[in-house]
Design brief:
Blueprint: H1 10-15, E1 28-29, E2 43-47, E3 50-56, E4 84-86, E5 95-97, E6 118-120, H2 121-135, E7 139-145, H3 150-159, E8 180-187, H4 215-229, E9 233-236, E10 239-245
Parallel strand pairs: 1-4, 5-7
Antiparallel strand pairs: 2-3, 3-5, 4-6, 7-8, 8-10, 9-10
Length: about 270
């Protein structure tokens, strides 16, 4: 298990975050308030793999119709692949436990002002397709992290400057490009599947090639990995939760900060 130290520089990094949109022409698509889902306030949940703020958008997900229609938004298929979209605007069939908007993470501090899940449009389309496949198995995707501003990557690197676990912010992470997600699976009633370790556990039990784990854990990881790979994602050997979309891995690094206006969903 990797020991974490050096938290004291985090707040200094946060004050340097650039809140302006990415200058290289990033398009951000988000719903107006009229298009927001109703009655979806975050709930505190505690389970065997940790506590966080989780918002469930799909207590009754429909495997055949998990794409949300919002009049104020363009169709996801009509958007450029590189446009950034808020995932909850286009599907209610996901669940969210965005750890970096809480203190329940390896840094033990919040580095997001509020929990939002953005990705590139091409990534969102692949995630919706993968989740449709998971729903047929009676499970769905729960997100720990999605797009990550590059300024937050610098904070993480200051705590864990180890490229085996955290990408060097100078080069940038695929999270910073809108093409990576950190996820697990949960039942449609919200119970997480046992993956053997918690999210962001830095050690060999979290590796994909760890085989000295209970059979059910290995089966759960296999379902996650094989399904994601069949929808264009590739995994990272040391993190069972991390998936990169091949088609989005070379996009430019971005650093835009999402709005935290009152009343907005994830």
């Amino acid at each position: 298990m990797l020991l974490i130290s050096g938290i004291s520089c985090i707040e200094a990094h946060r004050e340097k975050q650039d809140r302006s949109p990415e200058s290289s022409g990033v398009m951000e698509i988000s719903a107006t308030q009229d298009g927001d889902p109703k009655g979806l306030s975050p709930e505190k949940v505690t389970d065997s793999q940790g506590e966080g703020t989780r918002q469930n958008l799909a207590d009754e997900a429909d495997p055949e119709s998990d794409t949300r229609t919002v009049k104020s938004l363009p169709a996801l298929e009509s958007l450029p692949d590189t446009a950034f979209v808020r995932l909850s605007d286009y599907s209610t069939a996901f669940s969210f436990d965005l750890r970096y908007a809480t203190e329940n993470n390896f840094m033990k501090t919040r580095v997001y002002d509020c929990p939002k899940c953005y990705t590139r449009a091409i990534t969102a389309r692949a995630l919706i397709a993968a989740n449709t496949a998971f729903l047929k198995h009676g499970v769905r995707i729960r997100f720990f992290d999605c797009y990550r501003p590059n300024s937050v990557q610098y904070i993480m690197w200051s705590v864990v400057p180890n490229p085996q676990y955290v990408a060097n912010p100078v080069k940038g992470s695929i999270h910073n490009r809108g093409g990576a997600v950190d996820i697990t699976l949960e039942t449609l009633s919200g119970k997480p599947l046992d993956m053997g370790t918690d999210f962001d556990y830095f050690g060999k039990p979290a590796y994909h090639d760890a085989t000295d784990l209970p059979a059910q854990v290995l089966e759960n990881r296999k379902l996650l990995k094989e399904t994601m790979e069949s929808h264009g994602f590739w995994s990272v050997r040391t993190e069972w939760w991390h998936y990169n979309l091949k088609a989005a891995s070379a996009y430019p690094v971005a650093n835009f900060q999402w709005s935290c206006a009152m009343g907005e969903p994830l």
